Amino acid sequence: MATRTKKATGTTVKDVAxxxxxxxxxxPYHRGEIAFCSIQPYQAATLEKDPNAPAVPAxxxxxxxxxxxxxxxxxxxxxxDFLSGTYQGTKVVQANGKDTILYxxxxxxxxxxxxxxxxxxxxxxxxxxxxxxGERICIQLAGIRPSKNFSNPWYDFVVLRAKG
Length: 164
Prior knowledge:
- The chain is mostly beta strands and 164 residues long.
- It has one helix and eleven strands, in the order E-E-E-E-E-E-E-E-E-H-E-E.
- The strands form two sheets. An eight-stranded mixed sheet has the order 2-1-6-9-8-7-10-11. A three-stranded antiparallel sheet has the order 3-4-5, with no helix packed on it.
- The two termini are 25 Å apart.
């Protein structure tokens, strides 16, 4: 399963396919080549307030907090990790001084759906232009391949679309 980290709050939650209203989640997992799902208790982890954080100045106590307009990001840690949802298009962001594309997927079911971003890479930039907005897709890490010039390895992804 892919682990997602919310950049705005630093909260980490496990990827779930469907969150229930009763605090349960349908969590996908694999045994060999067969995919299963299990119903497990679900509660998003929250971080405690940092005791060393500086206090807000008195004059700004009722001001609104500015949060970044940045979706949660999917991280694929091992081969077989996947994220499935409805494709919502792309977003261009500045990263390390250059424009980078994020592919946006809406996961879960209303009213608990959440928008998750997947960072662009060569493997995805070849496959994602064929996907239409609103299609149900699954992005799975197929392998981590060595680079020909011995630099960092590259991530190979499989993109699946729902039939019908």
